[in-house]
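idk why but the lab printer keeps eating my pages so im just putting this in chat instead. protein + guanine:
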Amino acid sequence: MSAQIIDGKARAKEIKEEVKAEVEQLKEKGVVPGLSVILVGNDPASQSYVKMKAKDCQEVGMNSEVIRMEESTSQEELLAEVERLNQDPNVHGILVQLPIPDHIDEKVIINAIAPSKDVDGFHPINVGKMMIGEEDAYLPCTPRGVVDLIKLTGTDLKGKHAVVVGRSNIVGKPASMLLLKEHATVTVCHSKTTNLKEITKQADILVAAVGRAHMITEDFVSPGTVVIDVGTNRIESGKLVGDVDYEKVSQIASHITPVPGGVGPMTRAMLLMNTLDAAKTIHGIK
Ligand code: GUN
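predcted complex ->
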């Protein structure tokens, strides 16, 4: 039997329609949500992500700008730009596209973004709020999209065993927190985990966020598992593939996200949701 495909692209489209309708209402109140994205350097993947984020904003009627800075930009220059955006009342969301060049300390930059404009949910204040379950935290976009897609399958997370493979600050760690909030029993695995297969085989829900092409093969998965593939790996042929061996695993799983067209579009949709929330919060609109 083959798995049902979880159509992230279609779900993201639905979310964008909802955001667009809310943006129209906000405009009637004189507020146009605005996202500013800073891109430092010339990383081709980052350039294309940033372009897509700006396009998404336009499609839902938000203002957006991409601020491109040279690879040689100093930490002080980048900090000054972040501070300028913190002060700009027309900017509701600030996103510094990662990775940034090695000579700049990523932590210093993330800490400088006003938590109220941190639509990535990477600032320690928002991370802490997420950890203790405060409602006004900005949740990081990819994990938020992951949970939404699991719910879309009709799976009740309560009491289920969710296994997350990967412990990054962007995906693995926050995804485990959000799954816990949904009352799942969560196991976080990573590159140092011994007997990984034995653990992933116990999963009702498997979230793969390791960044290694096709690492999760059919022998990591038990029948009936919901498989969410966060990986976007460019292989030699130029093709974009996930962390999951889709062809094989889709024969076993109950539901599976494709790559592309699964988690990726959801990350972008959630960024729009967070930017909308930021605009509403900053202007005191419920
Ligand atoms: N680089 C890869 N994913 C992300 C993301 O979600 N946010 C930012 N700022 N940079 C990224």
